[in-house]
Design brief:
The protein is α/β, with parallel strands linked by helices and 496 residues long. It has 21 helices and 10 strands. It is globular and about 90 Å long.
Length: 496
């Protein structure tokens, strides 16, 4: 039907399938599992998987983007409308990347403060290459490497397209992103070509094919995707007789089906495994894909893909045939939902894999218990107001309140002061010495004010988050701390 947001549908998206079937850990064992910041535009695919698992009904899917009055599904991830499903909002652009970084950092903070065991929680951030133009998408990359966040993996879906056209028509976005992430100290894994290319690359003794790959800009790759195999033979391989000789044994159809690496399950799996094996720094996987892959020539790699809301019957036929769905022609006009059956081999496999990994995802579970009221000492001194003879600023009162809470037996260790580099401006430097500034590497230097009572004091188990001049980063920490009651089952109370 026309209510289905087809431009978002992640058809056979290898990165998600491999993650769900082999890597993303759930929380049915009582732990927090992994925290996955899903790319918002892929939400229909996750709804489809939940439908196969029996977690969502056909009626809910039919009411995609018709959530007014209850019973429908929001087009993008958000826990407000689906509080038992989505854990994190990830749209608008850039929200997911920054929050994923600060979530990974807050996981380490919780462990250092002995509030939660987060050793088995890995944070995954799924992004688009066009989204990486958003300042927040790359604004905190150095924090992740500086604090050795090897519990974090980014997966950037590099389909080379934005909404209106190519991301870098005259350039190469994957190479550009590799330079950015490498410079920021990340481990970079590129998944560019599928297995069909391996034999061709093995024959490339002179490096001529590698040179051709390196000189081909993104705009050309998009053109090759919509053209025939004969066109690709002439315009990509035909630039050098040695290249032509290497593909002489391939038909035009073979050449047309030389896939990009992001659609190769084996290579995506290998990239994920390598990411988890990397220690001491975060990893980014740059996976080259095709926008609208398997949706047919009217959508694949086309600039109009994002605006395409409906497939006609002929396109639905092609789509059905590619996915090998047993839907008869006479029913295609209604674009019916398809479920192979709860007892089918496919569904049994899905459920088996999720059971092995700790339960279905995405899933939001609130396990924390309500906190008791803070003790009378926290607020008692404020009951009588401030004497007229004593001038008091609001910040002075706030600092006093926070200090009282820090000393409360129930709340003390759960208070998270977050300061974007203006503690001294507001008279909060007293907290430096009292609770310390969180720094996973400790304080390797003797600060210039070390002989003063209120000296700068960084500790591996420090309680204060001194964020530096980043209000967006401070908000991301505030979000991670404020949602810890659900994410990890441990209440923390942020003060920004």
């Amino acid at each position: 039907g026309d209510h289905r947001d087809l431009h978002s549908f992640p058809t056979r998206r290898s990165s998600d399938l491999v993650g769900f079937n082999h890597f993303f850990r759930g929380k049915d064992d009582g732990g927090a599992g992994d925290q996955v910041f899903f790319q918002g535009h892929a939400a229909p695919g996750f709804y489809a998987r939940a439908f196969l698992e029996g977690r969502l009904s056909a009626s809910q899917l039919e009411h995609f983007r018709r959530e007014v009055g209850g019973g429908g599904l929001p087009s993008y991830p958000h826990p407000r409308l689906l509080p038992d499903f989505w854990e994190f909002p990830t749209v608008s652009m850039g929200l997911g990347p920054m929050n994923a970084i600060y979530q990974a950092r807050f996981n380490r903070y919780l462990a250092a403060r002995k509030l939660a065991d987060t050793a088995n929680s890995h944070v995954w951030g799924f992004l688009g290459d066009g989204e990486m133009d958003e300042a927040e998408a790359t604004g905190a990359l150095t924090l992740a490497s500086r604090e050795n966040l090897d519990n974090l993996t980014f997966v950037v879906n590099c389909n080379l397209q934005r909404l209106d056209g190519p991301v870098r028509g005259n350039g190469k976005i994957i190479q550009e992103l590799e330079a950015i992430f490498t410079g920021a100290g990340w481990n970079v894994i590129k998944v560019i070509l599928a297995r069909e290319w391996d034999a061709l690359l093995a024959k490339d003794i002179d490096g001529v094919r590698l040179d051709r790959l390196n000189e081909t800009v993104d705009g050309d790759w998009q053109k090759y995707q919509v053209e025939s195999g004969a066109y690709v033979r002439e315009h990509f391989f035909g630039t050098d007789p040695r290249l032509l000789a290497m593909v002489a044994h391939l038909s035009d159809d073979d050449i047309k089906h030389l896939r990009r690496g992001g659609h190769d399950y084996h290579k995506v799996y290998a990239a994920y495994a390598a990411a988890l094996a990397t220690k001491g720094r975060p990893t980014v996987i740059l996976a080259k894909t095709v926008k609208g892959w398997a949706l047919g020539p009217g959508a694949e790699a086309r600039n109009i893909t994002h605006q395409k809301k409906k497939l006609d019957v002929e396109e639905l036929k092609r789509f059905r045939d590619v996915l090998e769905l047993p839907i008869p022609d006479q029913k295609l006009g209604d674009a019916p939902l398809y479920h192979p059956g709860a007892d089918s081999e496919e569904v049994r496999y899905l459920l088996e894999r999720r059971r092995a990994l700790g339960g279905s995802l995405p899933k939001r579970v609130v396990r924390s218990r309500p906190m008791p009221a803070a003790g009378p000492k926290v607020f008692g001194e404020f009951d009588g107001g401030t004497p007229e003879s004593q001038a008091v600023s609001t910040t002075m009162v706030l600092v006093k309140l926070i200090r009282n809470l820090l000393r409360d037996p129930n709340y003390g260790k759960r208070i998270v002061p977050i300061i974007p580099d203006e503690a001294r401006t507001f008279g909060m430097e007293v907290l430096f010495r009292e609770v310390g500034i969180y720094q996973p590497l400790g304080q390797k230097y003797d600060p210039v004010d070390s002989k003063l009572v209120l000296s700068y004091n960084e500790k591996t188990d420090g309680q204060l988050l001194e964020e530096g001049i980043t209000e967006a980063g401070a908000v991301a920490s505030f979000t991670a701390a404020g949602t810890s009651y659900a994410t990890h089952g441990e209440v923390t109370v942020p003060f920004y």
